[in-house]
């Protein structure tokens, strides 16, 4: 016997969407002007989408590993993306390479962000606080970045990378993981959509 999950949505206009366009917080983002604003706008869009995909879930649901044997969970994604924000914006773009990595992540424990995503409200609260702190720090740095600096290169190890490429990579990183979040959320309660 095949079990079906009820598809949940708060949309009234388009039942296959997460929410109606008039209530979608991403629709309120300003129309970007210029390359930096465009990249930043996409990044903000995906950050909001991550928050939407996690909205209304408890600690057990956020930590649920819906696709065994993967260690990926929505909570793991929040922790991972906090690490990614810190790694690229603090360690690479700001040159703070000595900043300790988040969540005990190391060469010996590369999946600590996912492995430590356990169903504990304190872990959930800490993950969101860390993610929001890193997003705020990244946005402060971006707000001060002159458009003409996008072509400047920064060092990541021994590689020189244009700032522009880092921002494109951040958009790519979020886009990929928000796709994972879509599937994880649908497995939890059937909620689907944009």
TrEMBL record:
A Pfam family matched in the record: MST
Cited Gene3D superfamilies: dinb family like domain
SUPFAM superfamilies: DinB/YfiT-like putative metalloenzymes
InterPro entries listed in its UniProt record: DinB/YfiT-like, MST-like
Name under which the protein is recorded: DinB family protein
Species whose genome carries this gene: Promicromonospora umidemergens
Classification of source organism: Bacteria, Bacillati, Actinomycetota, Actinomycetes, Micrococcales
